[in-house]
Amino acid sequence: MSERVATTPGLYPLPDRAKEDLADLKGHQKGDLIDGSEGPAITDVYDRARAEAVADQDDAGLDRVVEGQLRWDDLLAHPLVVSDAVETGGIVRYYDNNNFYRDPQIVADLQPTGDVAAELEAATELTDGPLQAVLPGPYTLADLATDEHYGDEAELLAGVADFLAGEAEQLPPHETLFLLDPSLVTSPPGDDIAERLPAAVDRVAGATDADVVLHSYWGAHDETAYAHLMDADVDAFGVDLIHEREDTLYNITEYGTHDDVALGVVDGQNTRVETPETVRERADWFEERVPSQAFDTVYLTANTELFYLPVAPYREKLSALAAAADEEEVAA
Amino acid sequence: MSRPADNRSQFRPDDHPNDHFLLTTVVGSYPKPKWLDRARDLDESGDLDDAAWAEAQDDAARLITGEHERAGLDTVVDGEMRREEMTEFFAARIGGYEFNGPVKVWGHNYFDKPSVVDEVSYEEPWLVDEFAFTSDVATRPVKVPITGPYTLASWSFDEVYDDEAALARDLADLVNTEVEALVDAGARYVQIDEPALATTPDDHALVGECLDRIVAGVSEDVRVGLHVCYGDYSRIYPEVLEFPVDEVDLELCNDDYEQVDVFESPEFTADLALGVVDAHDAGVESVEQIEQNIRQGLRVVPPERLTVSPDCGLKLLPREAAYQKTANLVTAARNVEADLDAGRIDLDAPVPTP
Prior knowledge:
Chain A is an alpha/beta fold. Chain A has twelve helices and ten strands. By secondary structure, chain B is of the alpha/beta class. In chain B, helix 9 links the parallel strand 11 and strand 12 (306-309). In chain B, helix 6 (164-184) runs parallel beside helix 8 and helix 9 (287-297) packs across helix 10 (319-341). The interface between A and B is medium-sized, with 33 and 21 residues.
C-alpha cells in the first residue's frame, strides 16, 4: 500500500489584508514589484503573511509545508527578477491566464542570490512540519526568460540549471523539493533541447538531498519530452489529473514512471472545492490504471499554483487534500 | 454574415457641419470624479445611506455624459460611472453567480473574480435604468457597452458547466434578453465588449455563435458593435467578418497601427470603429496626429463606413487627459471630414504606416 502525502505546489494567494497593505506600500505599477530590495515595512507585511500561510497548512494538516512564495510577484519568474544579471521589461501574459509578469531579460551570467533560501529559512522558524522547497524547473525558467546573454537555447538551459542548482544548494534542510515545470507541457521542447533536459534537471536535483518532484501541469507531457525526462534522476514526476489525464496515463503506461508520483488531483484554478472523497477517487483512478506499478509515495497535490483562487476556497482545498491523505491512513 | 450597416445615419446630428460624416464615439469607461470614489468608500463602510449613494452615481453619470457632449461626440456614454469592473458589475446582477474574494491579475492589481455556482439566469434588468437616466440627461444618442458572454465566461470560475462554451452560450441568451429590454427602452446603439477574444483567438467561432444568439430578434435599425483589444488580430481576421455585427471596434493606436495592414485584405466588409487615441498613455495626442491616425482607418474602409473612437475605455487616465483626448478626437474627425468634402484627401493614394 502506498503512502499518501498531502502537499501543494506553493505560490499561495496573499491574505486579503496583506493584498491591501502591500498595494498601499508598494503601489500598482510594474516598477513597484519585488526586486529583492524591499524595506522593513514591506518585509514586515510579508513576514506576517508567511506566518498565516504556514499556519493555514498546519491547521489543515498537510504533510509538507511550503513557504507560500507570497513575494513572487513575477510568479515562476521570481528567482530571476531578484538577480543582478536580469533586467525587467514590459508586462507579459503568464501562460494562457489573465495574469501577467515582467519580462525577465538575462543580460549577464546568472549567479545564485539566496533569495529563495532566505524565504524558506524564515518558514523554518514557523513550523515543526516537514518543509517542502519550491523552485521553477530549469526548462520553465528558461522558457519564461528573454535571453540576451547566453546566445542559444542549449546554453541558456545550462546556465539556468546552474543558477537553480546554486539556489538549491543554499536551501535550509527540507524534506521535498518541488520543481514546477509547466512549460514542458505548454511549449514542449524541440528534439535538441529535449535531449538536454535530463542533464539540466539532474543539475538542480543533485544540489539537494531531499526527494525531488518534477511537477508539470495544464495538460500531459509531449511524448518525446516524456521519454527523455525518464532519464532524469528525480524521485517523482508530478502530473495534472485535471487536464488531459488520459494522455498522461498513456505516457506512463508506455514509458513507465518512478516509484513515487505526485498527482494533481485538486483544481488550483476553480473555486469548486473537492471533497476528500473526490480527491481520493481521483488518486484511486490513477493507481488502478497503472497496475504494473506499486507506488511507494503518492503525493496528493493541487495541479497548479494556488494564487489563482480567493483565500476561502484556497484554505478549503488545503483541508480537502489533508483529509484525503488522512482517511487513507485510517483505511490502511 | 455582417448585418447591413445602414443604420449609422440616425446618429448624424441635424446640424452636422460637413457632407462627410465620421461617426464619433467612445468605447465606454471614463475616469471617475474623485468624490465618487470617496462616496463609494463611504457606501462600502456603511457610512452613506442608499439614497445618497444613488444620488452620487446619478450626479456622476450626468456630469460625464455632459463632458462627452461638450467634447462634441456624436454618441455618448455615461462613462460607466455605475460600474466598477467589467465582469463584476454583470456577475452581481446575473443569477447563478457568487463572489468569494479578490484574485490577482498582476502585481497588486486584483479583481473579484466571480464563481458560477448554479445555472445562470436573468433576474432583473442590468442596464435599463442606467440607459434611461443617461438618455434623459443627454441631448445626443446614447451608446450602451455590455460585457460580452465569452468574456463573462472566461473571466469567471465555472463550478457548474464544466464547459466554457456551454456557459458562454447560456450567458449569450441572457445578453439577448437584456439587449431586447434596452431596445424596448429606446436604445439604438449597443456595443458588445469581448476583450477575452484577443487572449484566446482560437475561440472566434464560439464568439460568433454567441453573437448570433445576442442579435436574434433584434431589429436591424439597432446598431450593434463589437469591441476587441490588445491581441494579435491576424488570428481573428477575416473570421470576425462573419460575425453578425454592424461595426467592429479595434484598438490600433497603441502599437502605432502596426497591425492595420491585417485588415486591408480581404476587404473589411463591416464598419470599422478605429482607435485613434491611446487609452494607456496620459500624453494627449494633437489634433494633427489624430487626423493622421484617422487616415490609417481610410486604408481599410471608405469614410462612410469609418467610426472614430479611442483604443479602449479611458478610465485609467487622468480625467483632464481623457477629456482632451476626446475633444481632440472630435476636432480631428471634423477636420478630416472637411478635407474629404474639399477633395483634399485622395482616398486612392497610399498612406504609409507611421
